[in-house]
Amino acid sequence: MGPLAAIRIRQIAFIPSTMLSLTYWYTALGLWCTAGIIWLTLYSHFLITHVQPVVVLWISALLLGLGYGAITCLSRFGTVVATLIYIAIITLTGVSLAYLFSGGATIFVIVGIMFSLNALFIFYLNISSGLFRPLIFMAVSGIIAAIVVNSLVASSTLVWIVSVLTVLVWTLITALEKSTLHGYARMLYHSEFSSLPRCALFGALTL
Fold first, then answer.
1. In the chain, is it the N or the C terminus that has fewer CB atoms within a 10 Å radius of its CB?
2. Buried b (16+ CB within 10 A) or exposed e, 152-185
3. Residue 7 domain-assigned?
4. Total structural domains within the chain
5. pLDDT in tens, 102-120
6. Strands, E, within the chain: which ranges?
């Protein structure tokens, strides 16, 4: 085995952890931006005074369609297009949730904290996503974040319940999408047009 092959093997072993950490950071940033849009929409009273329920339903339908289309055609998009799609999904989600469930902002902040803590955990300990430790840490850190944040803002019982359920569901989704995230990591070596930020952004869109 030549020195270049050895370096390549070492890179392949390291990149999944690096990419997963960056993916979690992108996901956390998207969740916090969504929470910000929910807050801005609620405080501006825009939906209450200007938007009819049927418009919100159309926005929700557009969100589902955009999300499905993005996932099925994700590998065809460049970084700029994927970023624009990510921003569109964040905006539509924030606007629709502001009308449907005002406690969504708190929940998205909690889940964002969960992903950011896991990004730090994986990056500094260089833990592969193939292990169960990151997923266990994700669920535990998310529940702790839910307890702390909900206690600080004096959330209602419904927000407490939904936030804990959301943490568990998102942890399950992350576990189920593990192979997809590994596939994006392999794109770094199979395509000359793929970069770490691009593949991490694809992972964030998937989550």
1. N
2. eeebeeebbebbbebbeebbeebeebeeebbbbb
3. no
4. 1
5. 788 889 999 999 988 888 8
6. none
